[in-house]
């Protein structure tokens, strides 16, 4: 590791020590990434301060599908601007990146935050010529932690897009450390998903044949969201005949898997290289 990495690593691990619900200090990562490789625009896709999105467009024109990145935060915390380091990584691979904010618990419960992300995608599709510089015919869903759960729900339950008349096709899913087999009786989960059943709330239940390629990443040392979630989701996808690539990283915990997308920290895990390899097919 280089000297900068050694300096940054203890700071980042300290500010992220609580796990998924403490991702606000991701500004530490944003402060050390190179700038100037993309243009940022901010938009409102609905009423209220939380129903906004950021669009990061690479300065170099590309025909690759945009990526909708849904951040985590246990459905209680998070802000789109904290994840500029993710946008930097993905725009560097030629993809426009859309990062929506969404409403949080306790102001709302499931499925409001999933609806918000679906609404953000519909807004982007309707306004694609100005937001993306071209029509949006397809897109890739991506998320970390609770955001990976939302992205996986949108990928497996097509009703969210049907209800909104989304015509663009979801052509890929990248899930990082998501709770796909959500324990609805868990003390933290139960009030947020009150009244929901497994069919509504678990991506593992809604897998169907003919889904687009999926990449699932998880740290084997993750204590926040245990790796069995990814294992079960991967098995369901495979059993339905869907293309899925799954990677488990020894010694990697919940936050490091996404923090290592930041340019100075890519030696911390294989997540960036595996995402780059997956995206090479588009």
Overview of the molecule:
The chain is of the alpha/beta class and about 280 residues long. It has one domain (about 5-280): Rossmann fold, CATH 3.40.50. The chain is built from eleven helices and eight strands. Helix 3 links the parallel strand 3 (about 65-70) and strand 4 (about 95-100). Helix 4 (about 110-125) crosses helix 6. The radius of gyration is 17 Å and the shape is globular. The two termini are about 30 Å apart. Mean pLDDT is about 90; it is low at about 15-25.
Low-confidence residue ranges: 14-24
Distance between the amino and carboxyl termini: 31 Å
What is the domain total for the residues? 1
E-strand count: 8
Apparent shape: globular
CATH H-tier superfamily = Alpha/Beta hydrolase fold, catalytic domain
Output the CATH class name: Alpha Beta
The helicity comes to 25-40%
- Using only C-alpha atoms, the radius of gyration works out to 17 Å
Q: How is the CATH topology named?
A: Rossmann fold
- Kindly estimate the percentage of residues that lie in beta strands according to DSSP: 15-25%
Mean pLDDT: 91
Which architecture per CATH? 3-Layer(aba) Sandwich
